[in-house]
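Fig. S4 source data, part A: sequence.
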Amino acid sequence: MTRERFICEVRVCQGRLRRFLISLCGDAALADDLAQEALVRAYVTSDRFSGNFKAWVFRIAYNCFIDHLRRQPEPAVSIEAPQALHVQDTGGADGAFLHEELRLALAQIPEKERTAIALHYFEDLSVKEIATIMQIPSGTVKYYLSVGRDHLRERIRQ
């Protein structure tokens, strides 16, 4: 892959990549660091790349997030980060309150469920693309989506 093509591909997906990482870690500064690390890793190995660029870069970013979690003695998710979902307010204070509940509930579910939900609902990726990114079977992605929705529903009702 040429440098110019890499830059073009990054411009197309960098906003979505950052939003995905924010939804995982709940911290904009950390998401920026992870995105930068992922893009550097991608660039270094771009000569060996072939296939779906977005899925490839999201996989690298997901691995960077997992590596970060492994280095942390405590969970890296902060439920205090207001920018975690980057959902625009459509209904004034009531709309903001609804999104706040969702953001807090997302921060409380397991990382794999949160990842599948963020990729599917926030990034509009298919089950097959999510399976590629998370390196798990499609059936497992469907399971994480189903269980994740149930866990979100439980958390929001509480």
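Fig. S4 source data, part B ends here. The domain at 90-158 is CATH 1.10.10.10 (Arc Repressor Mutant, subunit A).
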